[in-house]
Amino acid sequence: MLIDESMTARSDLSEIERIREALSPVLANRFFHFERPKGTEWMGIVVGLFFSIILSIMSFTDVYTREDLIISLNIFSYFFFIFGILIAYSFPTGIGRAIKTLSGQKMSGITVSYGVGPNGEKTEPSQGKEGEGWLVKPPQIKHWHLNEPYAEDDRGLLAEHPMNLGTPIPALFTTKSIIILLKNILLSIAGVLLFIETNESMALIPILALGFLGLVINYNRVMKWRKIVDLPTSMIRGAAIGRLEVFGQLRPRKSWPPTIIVDNDPSKELFGMGIWSWEYSHSFSWDEWVDETDDEGNVIGGKWEPRRSKTPIRENSGKWPIMVHDGTSGIALQEGLLSGGRAIKSWSVPDESLWEGRKPHGDHIRNAKAEHFWMGSGWPVGEPLFVSGYASPRDYASLEAENVDRNEASALLEIGIEGNSIGHAVEVKRGGELLVLQHMESGLASLLPSFCMILITGIPLLQSLL
Asked: What are the sequence ranges of the domains in the chain?
């Protein structure tokens, strides 16, 4: 047993070293960061450049006067504003590249399957998805102290915890941000030239509106990133009342969650569910031929398109007392913090009688299917959870119901959506801080393109009104 624990500890250390090596380029301040596109990332650049060149040729055909030239430039700038996004987002940021390096060239975590616990406890696998999941394999059920749920793990702080890995720092500018800045400036200058030539304010108002819209959206994104970065991820063992950011593993607060029997059918089970729901419905699907017509209404072709419909029949939901545990201790989750969750399992049974005369007929229908369909969703224990919220004292009744050891300080608290901190948005993610921040950019890189649009178009428009 000691040998097994020692090997596990060494494995955790090597994982931490691997992640730190991948993150090393983005853990320090940089003025500019360039990442060369790889694989399918080149497709966006090729498509963006292709359409930009084609539309450029089309826009500047039949240009005979100065006004024609300016109008053509304006048309092209709008097209490049759209297709330039493909080019810009095909250049990965340093943080995005690090995530891909860690998770096998996908912006997602890994899928973790949990072995059966010492007393037969079972839970559902933690599935890696886009921007979600574990980057490092977490402790298995056998390593959780199920009789003392708030106790520290033998291996201590989770390997993936930000205190082990560090917090990424975005470069001041990236290739992506430079391309976005240039295309926004081009659109703004083209609009100003058209305004000077025609004296039509509508040459500037749409661009000015886009600038304000982009500024609002990006400002909110920057504020969200700043709040996450500026508030250190605490070790739960030292958690205090007030604003709190934690990362850990969902675990039960008392006994193991009972197995959920979906729709009273023993063949349909959900294991280890902290929050759960299921729905039974009648599901219908078919392919339908859709004619394609020209501008005059003449049929010039067609294609098969899939169609689906669903009739809900019954559903049920529930919850079990759960906590988030970071290896040092656990803290209870306030009711209402988690909702929904991900799709866990589905079951289906074909039954043509469900159509009951409503089955589509004709030469334009194929592959008609009807089935009984069950879907189970929720939050199983074992999931990774990042929470930026509020810690507050638990009520006496819940502490008594769980027979909590009052010497465990974090056990006396709960983290959730309720608190008295102004301007702190609650953030809940199924994954670590790295996945939450994978699209983070510097404040200057995020806001400068929109600010330039407002400045370049706003000044001439304002001068015309004075």
From this structure: 2-108+171-231+439-465, 237-435
